[in-house]
Amino acid sequence: MDADKSEGCCSVQLIDGDGIFNVSGIDHFIKDVKLGECGLSYAVVSIMGPQSSGKSTLLNNLFRTNFLEMDAFKGRSQTTKGIWLARCAGIEPCTLVMDLEGTDGRERGEDDTAFEKQSALFALAISDIVLINMWCHDIGREQAANKPLLKTVFQVMMRLFSPRKTTMLFVIRDKTRTPLENLEPVLREDIQKIWDSVPKPEAHKETPLSDFFNVEVVALSSYEEKEEQFKEQVASLRQRFMQSIAPGGLAGDRRGVIPASGFGFSADQIWRVIKENKDLDLPAHKVMVATVRCEEISNEKFAHFITNEDWRKLDEEVQAGPVSGFGKRLTAILGSCLAEYDGEATFFDEGVRSSKRHQLEEKLLQLVNPAFQDVLGHIRWGMLEKFKASFDKALDIGEGFSSASSTWHKACMTQFDEECAGAIIEQANWDTSKVRDKLVRDIEAHISSVRASKLSELTSQYESKLHEALSEPVEALLEGANDETWTAVKKLHRRETESAVSGLRNALAGFEMEEETRDKMVKSLQDYSRGVIESKAKEEAGKVLMRMKERFGTLFSHDSDSMPRVWTGKEDLRAITKLARSASLKLLSVMAVLRLGDETDNIEKTLNVALLDATKNDTSKKSITASDPLASSTWDEVPSSRTLITPVQCKSIWRQFKTETEYTVTQAISAQEANRRGSNWLPPPWAILALIVLGFNEFMTLLRNPLYLGVLFVGFLLAKALWTQLDIPGEFRNGALPGLISISAKFVPTVMNLLKNLAAEGQTPPAANPENRPSSNSTSSSENPPDDKSSSKKD
């Protein structure tokens, strides 16, 4: 159902054969022919008549349209289906022509009557001129084909509550030799008889035909037999459609014209009503004209107002910022626009004129309302900023919070009301209460924000003081955990919390706040104080293994005077280890739970029994089914909220602690054994006696041969030098095997070093030898006094 275009012509199927209105098609059609620009200067022509009576042929020749025509050689059949609409080419003003489906076709069958009446009513409702196509030989005949058509036209006309004054142009086709002057009276008489025979409503019983129709008659020769004459007559008839809506034209006295821009929507709505089998209630001519004209004037004045320089300037000023005298200036501009409307619409129907004026006024007020709202927004924003500045300044100079907020709140609201009164316009009764309420909410929100900020500052200030006063001292107390640790922590917590709460209460006195709110803030500060200690305690509990190892290392490796221990073998290593482990377990028991209240617990005793004393018992004597006091995730009579280290965790920590400190104890034991061996390096007495007895002969040999003594003396000196250089007593102090390994690694480099030194002394001048040699001997002598013992040990 797309529009068809040819030279100067455009057509569209307005309603298809099934009665479906082509909404998209008519919209495109109106745009293509630019119908919306015509205003009221357009006309609508329709044609009705029997099927295959040459309606489309007549329209195509008369208006230069392109409607589909019947092919006579294929037989008489339905050509036009539904209703087609086209624009006439070369006719001014813009003229639209509708080609209706034939009224007595065999194709539609029983549905013919229904669609015939619907299409006829539709044509009468929107057409200014209706062409009735009829055969010349039907005039004067009782059973003529045109009589059902005329009855249909007159019947549907009665369904129009206030029908249009329509021009009905009878086109007599295939005119015979009988003059038109003789045919026209007979035709008019037939028309009158049909009119009189049609049932009419009570209101139109005596209404003459001329009140509904302008009847015109024209005759045309046969198109097939006298084509040239037919075209000449059609050309003459075409001239009558030029300026057809002008006074004296074919549609010069038409009524109820719909503006061209609304033609498509109007036609769609009329067809919907007709399809629903309802009566059409078209407005009266006077009301219709007034409605259309007043609407045009209203739109014109509204468009003029939009481009009004005074209004545009005022609107720009409003966009830029606050405007003084806004109400008076806008009232004058609106009053001028409405006065112009009243002047041009004076002579139209009063009801329509007033209605359209009210609509125009509403549109104008709707247009300027955003500017009015902007003005109120500027006023509200200005008052809010003034309140903020004044309120903050009052607080800075020391004025009470509540007093300052109340005073400036009242002053700003009074000034707001005065400025709003100057922005009101006379034409509208606009309410400023919403903006006023918004300002009140904004001011109260700012007061609440400042109050919250001030209170937050106070809270943060005292929380910071508490954190500084508690954090490091609590950490130090927990690091040196003992029986008095939690007592000291509780005293510190109570003292600092009471001090901070007292300061906060004094600071809150100036806010005049409710007692309940004040108590909540105090309670929050107290909770924060406890939270600092709990947080620090949990942090230290996470370091408990490290603290235990540090305490064990300190007590195990240092004596009572804090001096580093030297493991000589005389120390009671078992007692020292037990003491260090007991102190470490004490730290674990202190850190196991929080003790900020007066609660008591048996955690220390439980840990001692389960961990420390367990090593004294023979594990083989323990029953397999004996219960483990640490095989639990909670302590007896201790809530989980106070638990820092669970029993299971304590057991695991102690196991890891023992594993990691076992090496330290082992090293101490090794050091004692090494020291013990280092102090007993001489052979036993019986070995010395055996050496003397068994070596007597060798000793006598040495006495008999002094050369051996010299060799032995040189060997002694070399051995003494190696003893000193290798630090043999020091190497064996850590054990026999480590000493041997260390000496074997250092032996060759030491020997090489000695040989280098001897070679260097041999190359030294003789004068230097006496000085160096005694020095070397004295050094060797002073550094190594136990020469005899070493020599005897070697032997």
Automatic annotation (TrEMBL):
Skewed-composition ranges (Low complexity): 769-784
Enzyme Commission code(s) on record: 3.6.5.-
Topology relative to the membrane: Multi-pass membrane protein
Principal place of residence: endoplasmic reticulum
Entry binding sites for GTP: 49-56
Localisation per UniProt entry: Endoplasmic reticulum membrane
Compositional bias of kind Basic and acidic residues: 786-795
GB1/RHD3-type G domain span: 39-254
Summary of the function given for this chain in its UniProt record: Probable GTP-binding protein that may be involved in cell development.
This protein's name: Protein ROOT HAIR DEFECTIVE 3 homolog
Organism: Arabis alpina (Alpine rock-cress)
Upper lineage: Eukaryota, Viridiplantae, Streptophyta, Embryophyta, Tracheophyta
